[in-house]
Specification:
transmembrane; single chain; elongated; ATPase_put; 2 helices; Putative F0F1-ATPase subunit (Ca2+/Mg2+ transporter); mainly alpha; transmembrane helix
């Protein structure tokens, strides 16, 4: 019977796919919060754009920090 161990690169796949999912969640929450604040204050795209930019920067910072800690 064959050895049923997962290949070594599947561990990397899981690590990087979870990191990508975390980045998507961070950016999605930033955009969602921006849309809700814009609806509440009747300021069309202002807070959506600001929070979108900050959430992208935050997601990149999170990815770099996560990548440096695991290597």
């Amino acid at each position: 019977m064959k050895n049923l161990k997962p290949p070594k690169n599947s561990k990397d796949f899981v690590k990087y796919s979870s990191l990508a999912f975390e980045m998507i969640v961070i950016m999605g929450l930033g955009v969602f919060a921006g849309i809700k604040i814009d609806d509440w204050l009747n300021t069309s795209p202002v807070f959506t754009l600001i929070l979108m930019i900050f959430s992208v920067i935050g997601a990149i910072f999170h990815a770099i920090k996560n990548f440096l800690n695991k290597h």
